[in-house]
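In this supplementary section we document a worked example of the pipeline. Step one takes a protein sequence of length 805 as its only input; no multiple sequence alignment statistics are reported here. Step two produces a three-dimensional model, which step three serialises into structure tokens for compact storage. The input and output of this example are shown verbatim.
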Amino acid sequence: MNRIRERIENKFAAAARLFYRHNIITLLVLAVFTGALLSQLPNLTVDTSTEGFLHDQDPDLLAYNDFRDQFGNTEMVIVAVKSKDVFAPEFLKKLRKLHVELRDNVPYVDDINSLINARSTRGDGDRLIVEDLLENWPKTPEELAAVKERALANPLYKNMLISEKGDFTAVVLQMQAYSSQGEEVDDVLDGFTEDSETTSQEERIFLTDAETSEVVQAVTSIVDTYRAPNFEIYVAGGPVVTDFLKKAMMKDMRKFMLLVGLTIGTFLFLMFRRASAVFLPLLVVAFSLLSTLALMAIFGTAIKLPTQILPSFLMAVGVGDSVHILAIFFHRFRKNKGDKAEAVEYAVGHSGLAVFMTSLTTAGGLLSFSTADVAPIADLGIYAAAGVMLALLYTIVLLPALLALIPLKDQKEKTSQQTTPRLDNILSTIGHVATGNPKAILVITALIFIVSIVGITRVKFSHDVVRWYKKDSPIRIASEIIDEEMRGSIALEIILDTGKVNGLYDPDLLQRIDNSVGYVEQLKKGKIFAGKAWSITTILKEIHQALNENRPEFYAVPDNPDLIPQEFLLFENSGSDDLEDVTDSQFSKARFTIKVPFQDAVAYTDFIQTVNEHFQQTFPELKITTTGMTSILFQTMARVIRSMAKSYTIALIVITLLMILLIGKMRTGLLSMIPNLFPIILTLGIMGWFQVPLDLFTMLVGSISIGLAVDDTIHFMHNFRRYFEQTGDAKQAVMETLHSTGRAMLITTCVLSLGFFIFMFASMNNLFNFGWLTGFTIITALLADYFIAPALMVLVNRSKIPISS
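The serialised model returned by step three reads:
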């Protein structure tokens, strides 16, 4: 193993010598490679949609796409307006003006509903009349009273357009299912070929994230002009929440990149006191980051909620390789009195293998996410790993070439001379404590392990998008008010498929569907309730009542099978197309919609299971499909739990194998995983004891941290082996290791932890938790390598026999 390691180290030194000598050619080749990548950056997109959490071929996403193709977009933008009297003449006039402006000026809207155009079905003799509630504007108090009476008597309006208390009304905007992109081209080509319509249909894409943002921005800009003391407006719904997420995400990304860059630059300057030591690592990091984002653009991968941490993460992680090599380079440069070529060759030869292994283990930890069932988590694993390896490439190739061109002075740094003895004293104290009390340290470690494992049993999962915002955030306030007053803002959709034409003409089946509406509307599981439920029977009962002199007792499903198709036909002939929203053209499928609050995805578990069980038991002969935004939120959380278990296991196996390979001994390699696992177990335990939820972001802490924590362990073990082989004394080898590698470990830990602590300045709670947890884990990883790793090495190597033997 020693010969192999020496051979690899010599290869790294030879590569550094090559890049140093042929610096111009190296930089030109690298410029062409990087330029080709960066030319694709304009194609990078952002996607914060909920369905973006699922893979393209995920069965749940395919079912949701089929639903959207059949029934349109399920997502609602809800504009709720509060007033003392929502039927006051002046209020209704202002509401009408708002309704019309939203209808005429908001793009990509398929339908808009409010009290102004709410469906009102009534009979007039033998005629069925389906009209807008305020089609004939009331001119007298009596006419207004009649309108109010009709509205309050209509079960459809309750919790849909009017709150139970009567002090809120809503304007509900339903967005288009499909994007408008390419429609102009389709219109031009239409008619040139017989199959042009089929082709364009196949190529159609669903409403894009950018188009959804246009809808939300248009709505918010319009409603802002209508806000008044007696016309309080709240805007919420799935599209609004995700659009605000995107804005916060883009704002935070820019802020984090700037702060991380400033933090890294400041810290590097304080440690090295050289401008080149700041410029070179930041250049490596910048090229690595931009190249990684370019790869995402090339492969059509959008930046999504979890991948928003990628830029700041790569900036913090990518600097580590440069720091280790530059630390040795400048030390050697001063020692050999300014021989840059020899210093570069020595530094890369000395640390090249360790840097390669740390990059490999970090990438291995990140690649554990690539198998995740949550699409953006898998994307993060793939592209973060690619970014880490790109950082390695730029470090090994770019640093020697640039160092050859940059003039350097042999500085004698007063600050360094003053700081080094202090740091040496601290590291010496740590070494004496660790090597002098190994058993006590391991006993304390074991106790912390036990307490942490108990804490882990208390960890709770969460995916609460609305509660990611601060309590005083306008979107959180609006969502919570609308969920409370209008009893929900997102939908759970269920498709009942009879599998036969006109299968919905069966009175018994329709009665069971109607009974299910009543059952669901009474259902409540924890925080989740059904604020409203409706289906095809909602329209059928309106028709049946209208055709029977509008008498309330006829608001029911007709028991005569011959009446059902006739009544539906009369409704269609009235000019209304509302049946298209609840059934297909062959009356074989029924859509069943349940409006629920926007809550933690975990909270939906019991509710959705109860609903599914009810429909499976009530309709055993039908094919039941559950879909919609609520279902996707629920499925996302289930996938997070599965992905976490899978990614942690893969990361542990991959990194353990790499550690054994690097160290060359099975027992020592396995023991070296103890200081790597310790910070992860401790952090998860703290999350359990302090009730920090394990969500889409905090689940990343473990695999990211183990990939980073192992870096310091590799550097420690790599140097410990070298010194132990020279001295045969484990205690002395520990002291030498701490005095040589301990400084670089401290620098990289400070840079990494500060890079993650910056996330605590995020505008969202989930990123705040992710930041402090990851930063804390990285610091405890350093402490584990300062105390636990030396204690283990002293106990394992008491006989003073070199590891290589």
